[in-house]
């Protein structure tokens, strides 16, 4: 894999690239990096795709947005801008994980750019909202609320970003070795300005004075509430504490998606199935992209 750079929305995006063929754009979450896709990228390249995994806006070595904006709509704009800058066409596919998932749900509404999309570990907004706005949901995703506080930067940065070690332990299955993932994540967020940028994603998306209000719901629905235009694969880990994904929930998800979509739980995976169970996740992604699910 090689590291390259391109400029979109006045941001210089650093990205990893492997393979040739239709664009497969892979967007990571928090606290992660393009290393989340280190197993999927060679599999996509072998399947005939040009796999590109950028560092999100504000995650080093990508640069900070000049306007300081970190809304989900900005991430959607980044995704579609990267499609154009990287020479994507209508055969391009899109993969998103964790915080990038809402942006992928939004970008996937553009069927002219993206032929298929894969969303890991976050359901579509009509399912996400009711699951988060419960006692269990607010407890499981407590970092959403903690990141709103003024002390968050200090706590997360302490002991060489030790809070990230805790996040990985909480959201991965027992026994997973997160050493490599944490190294790359900490390199991307160690500088105070990069950590502040990452927390700004949560502070912008889940402001305590508006979160859950009709205005907030309308704002998010306008960005990622509509169904995608093309088929989507929605994957979850059986050991992920973020959401309780039952067969009924999977059925609800698929019912709101275009024909050819699929939703599945990966046994033994936590919130990072891409690196916890890479063989199974790669198999499902490649079968879906080939129209075999």
Question: Can you describe this structure?
Answer:
With 293 residues, this protein is an alpha/beta fold. The protein has one domain (2-289): Rossmann fold (3-Layer(aba) Sandwich). It is built from 13 helices and eight strands. The chain has helices at 40-46, 72-85, 100-107, 125-132, 135-140, 142-146, 152-171, 179-189, 192-205, 214-224, 247-255, 273-276, 278-289, and strands at 2-8, 11-18, 23-27, 50-54, 92-97, 114-120, 232-237, 262-266. Helix 2 (72-85) packs across helix 3, helix 7 (152-171) packs antiparallel against helix 8 and helix 7 packs across helix 9 (192-205). The radius of gyration is 17 Å and the shape is globular.
Helix content: 40-55%
Distance between the termini: 29 Å
- CATH C-level name: Alpha Beta
Largest beta-sheet characterization: 8 strands, mixed
Shape: globular
| Count of alpha/pi helices | 13
What is the number of strand segments?
A: 8
Q: Estimate the mean pLDDT confidence.
A: 97
The fourth-level CATH homologous superfamily is Alpha/Beta hydrolase fold, catalytic domain
> Could you name the CATH topology?
Rossmann fold
Order of helices and strands: EEEHEHEHEHHHHHHHEHEHH
In order across it, which strands form the biggest sheet? 1-2-4-3-5-6-7-8
Provide the number of structural domains.
1
Main structural class: alpha/beta
Poorly predicted regions = none
Task: Round the Cα radius of gyration to an integer and report it.
Answer: 17 Å
Tell me the strand percentage band: 15-25%
Please name the CATH architecture.
3-Layer(aba) Sandwich
